Amino acid sequence: MFRIRSMKLIACCAALVFSLGERAAHAEVTERHEKVVNEVFQRLLAVMETPDGWEVWPPEVTVVDKGFANAFAGFRTEDGVDVPYVEITVTTVEEIADYDPDTLAFTLGHELGHLFFDHNHQSVEFREKFGDKLQTIRLACNREQELEADLFGMQLAFKAGYSRQGLIKDLHAWRENTTPYCRFEGLSVNHPTWEDRATFLFDDERQKSLWRSLSSFQTGVMFLENQHHLHAQVCFENVTVEFPECYEAWANLGYSLLMQYCDGLDAEDLKNFNIGHLVVGGFYRRPGSLEPTVRGVDPDLWFEAVGAFREALRLKERLGLKDDLLMVKANLAVAYLIHPAGKDVGQAEQWFDEVFTALRNNPEDSQLDPLVHASILINSGSARGFDSDLVVQTLGLLAEAKTKRGNDLVAEALETALQFNQARALTTSGDPANQLTALALFEKYLDGMTSASSWWPIAYEQYVQLSEAVGKAPKKESEFKQLGIKDWRPITAVELADGKTIGLSQPLNEVLKTLGPADVEIPVIEGKNIKYYKYEDLGITILATREVLAVILDSEKAPAVKIQRPGLGGDDATLEMGMNRGVLEGLLGSDWDVEITNLFQLDELHQLYRDLGLAVQFEDGVVSELVISVVPLK
Ligand SMILES: [Zn+2]
């Protein structure tokens, strides 16, 4: 019996589609497009085995004009028969392949791979069985299918005589053409990153480790942006092990370590250093050369951070790099302002001097990213004090930064820190008009900055003193904006008792190397590479494909999970098994504030804190299971 399905029910594609219709100018489908696509397609089909399951074979290929780069494999149902087809867009032929048959072969081979394994019908079955539920599992299966299609496409293209150069060109072109996203962000979408797809494909160590490092770098940057400094540290360490000459990785490694050190400083420590508000923002976002758990000063982290910065500078000398590494030098200056043995003004000044001399003398350096430039100015002002010129220049840079999409939040955070520093400078001037301005700036700061930041109580103390000095009643602490249940950094990793860390999106083989083989492996879906790895003694279960999708804490032996408020030096709290339901909900919100959802199984419900990346189950009024996972939106 045939089942009648709608036309073009489902299609697999080559790349992740972020937004459609971005490009207005549509190119036309010409004979030249069709000729090259057909030639490659027929040459691939000639060496391809006929797959089981299709009544109609071979499929047809069509060049379509959609205004963006992609390719699709799907089927339509005609008189009850499923007819497979492949489509490729004009933009793919022109911009990804530049009409080069060797490059096209991998994209078309990938689509034929989807048809060979019949991924379309598998996806239909999954939906019929689970509906819209179990998104994490569904997307993980999709990503596995993409890798399967990639491998098939590569082997088919080689079998048909296409070159390895074509493959490399194809991968680089897709990577350039699409919005970059990292392995961690990849957990909430249906395609792995191009870096991970390439790592999976290549079998020679050099290519493989290059792509693996690009992937780690990208992931590390995302963690830095989200203030997960420990997790970022691991990513950049991986890059420096494989590519010791990647100076950007050394610079970012130093930055992640310095930020962990800063996170450990409390208000008392900062008072002792007697400096203004430091800011974050100075790290590399692309590797051009490749294309603390407790409060208190931790000297080891500081020395490791400075060591990594110095390694970046040493590489600059040795490799004769053009990059002046101003960011690295500015970060070194900051490090000396918060030296564990006390502020070292001399060293900090020396590094700031180098940076400012370069900015004056080299016009190229004024091309510095405005956010990085602004953060250098704010940090230098924290040490040297602010005059009105410096404030005007910094505000100008921040305004420039805001014109770029995605910079808003960081720019606002820098503005807030600048308010603190401005207020601090005006307070000491003794001029009554200036003091009133300072008072207003302090109030703005206290409202805009999270009160969990270590600088907040310092600002409040100075605000109260200044209010009294000018004879005004200060506002109470509680009158400023309070932190809410949503104000936490997302959880991305679990730290075990012995200090080892298991991170979401971490490659499974790394985890197995760290923890050893699991006590039990349980497949989630028969025939799919998605399993639970149970570690009884650690009290954790890891859900993984090739990468970690979730860490499940489900026994008394499980470690506690630390959550932290955003902002440098943000407060923290601990979640653990057996903790009182009311206490957890007091921190994160109760069932009024959350979704109740099926995570990995149809017969189990969890209370989901989506923004935090945490799901919880309770039994008899206490926490009985904690799940750390990225749960994609439906
Ligand atoms: Zn695909």
Q: Could you please describe the fold and organization of this structure?
A:
- The chain is α+β, with helices and mostly antiparallel strands and 634 residues long.
- The chain has helices at residues 31-46, 90-96, 101-116, 119-130, 135-159, 164-177, 183-186, 194-201, 205-225, 229-242, 247-263, 267-273, 299-319, 326-337, 345-361, 370-384, 388-402, 408-427, 432-448, 455-470, 508-515, 581-588; strands spanning 11-13, 60-64, 71-78, 81-89, 493-495, 501-503, 520-523, 531-535, 540-544, 548-553, 561-564, 572-575, 595-598, 605-609, 614-619, 622-629.
- The chain has an 8-stranded antiparallel β-sheet, covered by helices on one side. A 4-stranded mixed β-sheet has the order 1-3-4-2.
- It folds into 4 domains: 11-179, no CATH class; 199-384, Alpha Horseshoe (Serine Threonine Protein Phosphatase 5, Tetratricopeptide repeat); 390-482; 493-629.
- The protein is built from 22 helices and 16 strands.
- It binds zinc ion.
- Residues 12-14, 110, 114, 146, 149 line the site of zinc ion.
